[in-house]
Design the sequence.
């Protein structure tokens, strides 16, 4: 606690040139956290634990982020004007990672007999229980949309502008942590003649349930996790589901079915990528066609979306193809360590990554740890890019961890000064990947090797 200043409060409040209020006396570090999903909750938990003042901005009325279900009144054709929801959660979603990797190390845990791959409702309740247990809610400003984050001159270098109940306000902060996820700005691929397609064109961001697609021929473009999951969900009601895209490689979660029908109703088939559309016909990369297609569902992923940074270059950042740079170990702005990101990488055990990143950030912001100097941080950025290039990765996969996620988790844990996930954890993770390849239709319902308790996986 800082001693109360003898200067009268009315005289102690000053304004900097940006119009933000600050105190001329010494003040506790004030951190703005953007988003109250899993990453935001982890940030609040560890920043507060480190003795910092925290204000979290959440545009929705509750916590959860991705795990907060938002129903849609009607189907959305992306070629027409529309409003993008804050989450892509659909009614039948179950986790892709087994329970240990969906667990926060210092939580009270899930209820007994929770399935290895729980439904989204279980995860949402788990997050609500965690926030309640650690009293995180008082630090969150709900239904508050951040409209702008700007770097300014003054004692507190970050100005955050937000809107709530039709009123615009702004406040200055010492540090900012971005936790708004990476599933809000859908990637729409270029498909010749897409505007002439007579069926519905939508994206997985807008998918909620299979019932509206009853007796339809549905083509899905994108053959990774979302494509495979939604093809199985749609197969319950659709006449036929055409799953289109690159078949199984090191970057695909599914197996090549050789063109044979599969799925619960034996009505799913795999096909090459879609290159053009006309009427209700889709032309594929190998020259074959899919006819009488009623709906084209794009499961083509997401770009990073930062609507509160209208000009990323103004804060020294650059957005490439699903790649934000320069970030030191995908966490700290390499040139300005007062700005940090949690949960930016895709295809990783986000509960564990967010845990380690938030501890690291809290320790740095509270001066318990010191980062390397700017030159060293930028060298590390260039080295990480070179490593990705050496693996033959395209830029859009630089922050997609997949096979690299375990060494990246260990790297962040080491930087945070925390115990590292061990060989048992890595083995468990690899087993879960192989289990999905072996049983792509129903891997969530088929038991595999016994999973050790969390305490045996190296996390405290």
Sequence:
């Amino acid at each position: 606690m800082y001693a109360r200043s003898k200067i009268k409060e009315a005289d102690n409040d000053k304004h900097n040139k940006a119009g933000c209020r600050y105190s001329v006396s010494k003040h506790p570090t004030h951190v703005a956290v953007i988003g109250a999903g899993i990453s935001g909750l982890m940030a609040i938990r560890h920043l507060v634990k480190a003795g910092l003042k925290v204000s979290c901005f959440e545009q929705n009325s509750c916590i959860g982020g991705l795990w907060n279900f938002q129903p849609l009144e009607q189907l959305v054709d992306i070629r027409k004007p529309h409003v993008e929801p804050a989450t892509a959660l659909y009614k039948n979603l179950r986790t892709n990672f087994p329970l240990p990797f969906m667990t926060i190390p210092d939580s009270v845990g899930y209820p007994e007999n929770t399935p290895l791959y729980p439904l989204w409702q279980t995860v949402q309740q788990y997050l609500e229980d965690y926030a309640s247990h650690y009293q995180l809610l008082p630090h969150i400003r709900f239904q508050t949309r951040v409209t702008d984050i700007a770097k300014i001159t003054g004692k507190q270098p970050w100005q955050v502008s937000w809107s709530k109940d039709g009123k615009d306000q702004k406040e200055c902060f010492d540090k900012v942590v971005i936790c708004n996820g990476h599933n809000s700005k859908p990637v729409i691929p270029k498909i010749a003649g897409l505007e002439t397609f007579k069926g519905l064109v939508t994206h997985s961001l807008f998918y909620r349930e299979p019932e509206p697609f009853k007796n339809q021929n549905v083509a899905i473009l994108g053959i990774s996790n979302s494509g495979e999951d939604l093809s199985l969900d749609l197969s319950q009601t659709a006449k036929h589901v055409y799953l289109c895209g690159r078949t199984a490689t090191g970057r695909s979660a599914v197996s090549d079915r050789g063109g044979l029908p599969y799925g619960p109703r034996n009505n799913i088939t795999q096909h090459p990528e879609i290159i053009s559309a006309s009427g209700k016909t889709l032309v594929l990369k190998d020259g074959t066609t899919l006819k009488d297609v009623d709906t084209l569902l794009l499961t083509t992923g997401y770009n990073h979306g930062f609507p509160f940074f209208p000009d990323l270059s103004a804060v020294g950042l650059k957005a490439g193809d699903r790649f934000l740079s320069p970030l030191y170990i995908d966490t700290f702005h390499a040139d300005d360590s007062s700005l940090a990101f949690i949960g930016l990488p895709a295809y990783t055990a986000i509960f564990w990554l967010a845990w380690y990143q938030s501890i690291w950030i809290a320790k740095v912001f509270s001066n318990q740890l010191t980062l390397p100097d700017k030159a060293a941080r930028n060298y590390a950025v260039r080295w990480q890019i070179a490593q990705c290039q050496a693996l033959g990765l395209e830029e859009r996969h630089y922050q997609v961890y997949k096979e690299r996620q375990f060494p990246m988790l260990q790297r962040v844990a080491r930087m945070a000064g925390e115990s590292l996930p061990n060989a048992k954890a890595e083995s468990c993770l690899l087993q879960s990947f192989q289990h999905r390849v072996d049983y792509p239709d129903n891997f969530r319902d088929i038991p595999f090797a016994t999973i050790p308790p969390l305490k045996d996986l190296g996390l405290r």
Remarks:
- DSSP finds eight helices and 24 strands in the chain.
- The CA atoms of residues 348 and 405 lie 6 Å apart.
- The helical segments are 9-12, 38-49, 120-133, 225-234, 350-365, 374-390, 405-415, 423-438.
